[in-house]
Structures are given as C-alpha cells and as structure tokens.
Specification:
Helices cover 12% and strands 32% of the residues. It contains five helices and 13 strands. It has an eight-stranded mixed beta sheet. Strands 10-9-11-13-12 form a five-stranded mixed beta sheet, with no helix packed on it.
Amino acid sequence: MPTAWGELDHIMIFCNVGAPEAGALTDRGLHEGPGNTHPGQGTANRRFFFPNAYLELLWIENSVEAQSPEARDTRLYERWQRRLNGACPFGLVLRPGPRGPEVPPVSWTYAPRYFPPGFSIEVARDPPANEPLLFYLPFARPSLVENLGPAEGAVRIGSITGFTVHLPQTHVLSPALNALVGAGVVSVEPAREYLLDLFHAGGTSLIIDLRPQLPLRLLPSSVAAPAH
C-alpha cells in the first residue's frame, strides 16, 4: 500500500470504555499485544498486531484531558462520543512509505504531551463526520510494528495488503480522503452502515467477521469480500 501519502501504520476503532469489544478478537484466537494510555490526550487503547500494521481499539479515559485545548482539535473526543450516533467510528493512521515522508494535504501539526520533544502528528483538517479521521506519523517505521508481533500459538494474520472502508453517504468525499483513494491507499464503498475490511496475505485462510461487536472483517487477500 505505499504511496506518496505513505502507507498504513494502524487503524483506530472507537470502542466502549475498556474496549470490551476486544473479546470478539480474543475469542477467535487473535493475540492481544500491549496497550497504552495517552496522558494529556485522555485516551487509552487495546492493540492487536499484524506483521506490518496494527489495530487500535480506542476509548476516552479522561474526558477533561480529551476536551482540553491541546487535544480537542483532534476530534477524538467528539468522534468517540458520537460513535453510536452516526459518526464514523474509524481513524486511519499512516506512516512514511518507501519514497520517504510526505505531509498530508491540508493538515495541522499536533505535538501531544506524551510524545518526546520534537515528535508530532499531522492531522487532516475538518474531516466530515461520516469519514474516518486521518493522521500521519512522520517518525513511524514498519519495524516498530514487527517487533510486537503475535505470540506463538495465536491465530496468525498475514501482512495487511489493502483495506476497504464502507461508508454511508459517500457521494462526495473530502479532498483528503479522496487523495488517499486516488493514491490507492484505501478503497471506499457505499454502504448502509460503517464497516472496515482488512485484507491480509498468508496466515489463516478464514474470513473473520467481528460483527456485531466490531464493524470489522479480516479477509485473506485471495478471497473476494462477501456481501455486507
């Protein structure tokens, strides 16, 4: 998936406090890696790692911090609150691809308190409520994901080769998301409800459908996506 915008680093899905939805993954044999918290941003997560990317189940742990001046423009609090009331529950986080770093168009620079000095995130401006939040990590590298791979004996998911976001009201895409679609980073399909398809190479040949707990399917690259 490398492009001028970079490549996928991880995908966020907004969940209930503590992400009990993670049980949909662990019950199917997927290994859960270490989670973390984000002081000053008010969020916490549970994470599941694949060879070249990971899945982040995110929730608001501290609503005061999440609504503070330094964090509120990320829209994380707003999206988390509205995740069951029509807002897109996804965030797409990119990193530099083989061609080197590129800053997403029409973005602003966010330097969260939990980052070391000199590190920051580029955040796409003004995403429509029915589209994913878009982030870019200039410092991220694939090796940071590979070092946290699944444990022995867990159901293995191969490297992520592509992903499709099913969105209601897709007749007009924002310039930022349209750029990602045009660059081949992500596919967008119209749908009645939000759904994310992650395609992977190798590992299990099973189609893993996490609904209704999570709007997510894990699909081998060789398998056409089933109807939704």
